[in-house]
Every structure is written in C-alpha cells, then in structure tokens.
C-alpha cells in the first residue's frame, strides 16, 4: 500500500485523504440515522392514545424522550394544536425544514468526494503522462525504467480515483434513501397527529 501511494505521486495522497474524509462522514451519518430511526407506528399510536385521554403533558414528555426528527415534528403538532390549521401547517413545515437540514448535514461532503475523486484520478493520469513525455524529451531513447514513474502515476491515480468514487457514490445514495425514508415517516406521523388533535376540544378549523 505504501509503495502504491508513493508511486502514485502527490495526487494519490490527496485521493487517499478524500477517502478518509468520506468514510468518516459516512459512519457519522450512519450513526446519526440509526439514532433517529424509531418505530413510527408505535410512537404515533402512543401519542394518539395520550392525546385522546387528554394527557398533553405526557405526550410532550414522550416526544422529549424520543430521539429523531419524527418526535420533533409530532411535538410541534401537539404544542400548536390550538392554532388555526394554516398556522399549524406552517409550524410543521418550519420544524421539518430544520430537521431535514440536520439529516442532510455532511451529505454534500460525501457527494463532493464521489464527484472529485475520479477527476483527481484523471488529473493524475495527465500529470503522469506529462512526466513521461518530459523524460522522453530529455532523452530521445530513454530506458523503459525511466518511463515507469510516469506510467505508474497515470495508472495508479486513475484506479484509485475510481476505487474511491464508486463506493462513495453508493454510500451517498444509501444515505439519501435513509433521509427520504425519515422524511416520509415525518410526514405520516404529522398527518396522523394532526388528525388526532383535530378531535381535541379547543382545536380550531
């Protein structure tokens, strides 16, 4: 591995650094999504039962004790259930935007690595070819061993760029899917709790 990094030139080290960054952000987001994922059906059913019994404070406490964006959206519905329906919808949208932004934090870094890694590999190919032609210019009949450095740099950086970009792109799509699933859970939970609080006394149409 060390030999490949040294033969690949400076861009090889940059590609390796990009892979470390992508791995770090991927596992950070994976851990965050794991904590944010709950059994939405059971959670909403519990909140709905508490609201039907008029136990609003207990419902809010349950939201506070539950991690993730679904609980925050449901808490917003419970807190604002006496407001007009349009204002309630706006409050939900405001909280949802904040939670989605929190979920998507770091995804742009992973996407950037997936996009620039093959470009860095291609740049390494170009610099390797330049290095090889410089050797040819200096010696019209160079020893094949003198050309090996440029060829190594061209091939290794291309391979490394693709090797980093492909799994990083797959990881990005996986995380985006997780975000979309959490957003759907937020929407379903909000709709169900809005329907539940609509039957509570004091709610406004």
Q: What topology emerges from the helices and strands here?
A:
Elements: H1 2-7, H2 10-36, H3 40-52, H4 56-65, H5 69-79, H6 85-104, H7 107-138, H8 144-197
Describe this structure as you would to a colleague.
There is one protein chain. The chain is an all-alpha fold and 205 residues long. It has one domain. 84% of the residues lie in helices and 0% in strands. It has eight helices and no strands. The protein has helices at residues 2-7, 10-36, 40-52, 56-65, 69-79, 85-104, 107-138, 144-197. Helix 2 (10-36) packs antiparallel against helix 7 (107-138), helix 2 runs parallel beside helix 8 and helix 5 packs antiparallel against helix 6 (85-104). It is rod-shaped, with a radius of gyration of 27 Å. It starts with a helix and ends in an 8-residue tail after the last helix.
Features:
about 200 residues, mainly alpha, 8 helices, about 85% helix
């Amino acid at each position: 591995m060390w030999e490949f990094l040294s033969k690949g030139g400076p861009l090889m080290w940059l590609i390796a650094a990009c892979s470390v960054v992508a791995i770090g952000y991927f596992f950070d987001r994976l851990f965050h999504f794991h904590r944010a994922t709950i059994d939405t059906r059971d959670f909403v059913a519990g909140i709905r039962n508490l609201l039907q019994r008029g136990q609003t404070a207990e419902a809010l406490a349950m939201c506070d004790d539950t991690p993730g964006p679904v609980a925050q959206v449901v808490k917003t519905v419970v807190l604002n259930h006496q407001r007009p329906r349009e204002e309630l919808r706006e409050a939900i949208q405001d909280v949802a935007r904040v939670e989605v932004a929190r979920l998507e934090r770091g995804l742009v870094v992973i996407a950037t690595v997936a996009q620039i890694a093959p470009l860095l590999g291609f740049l390494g190919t170009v610099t390797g070819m330049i290095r090889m032609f410089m050797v040819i210019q200096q010696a019209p009949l160079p020893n094949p061993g003198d050309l090996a450095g440029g060829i190594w740099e061209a091939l290794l950086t291309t391979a490394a760029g693709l090797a980093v970009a492909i799994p990083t792109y797959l990881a990005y799509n996986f995380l985006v899917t997780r975000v979309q699933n959490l957003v759907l859970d937020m929407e379903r939970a909000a709709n169900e709790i809005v329907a539940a609080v609509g039957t509570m006394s004091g709610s406004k149409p």
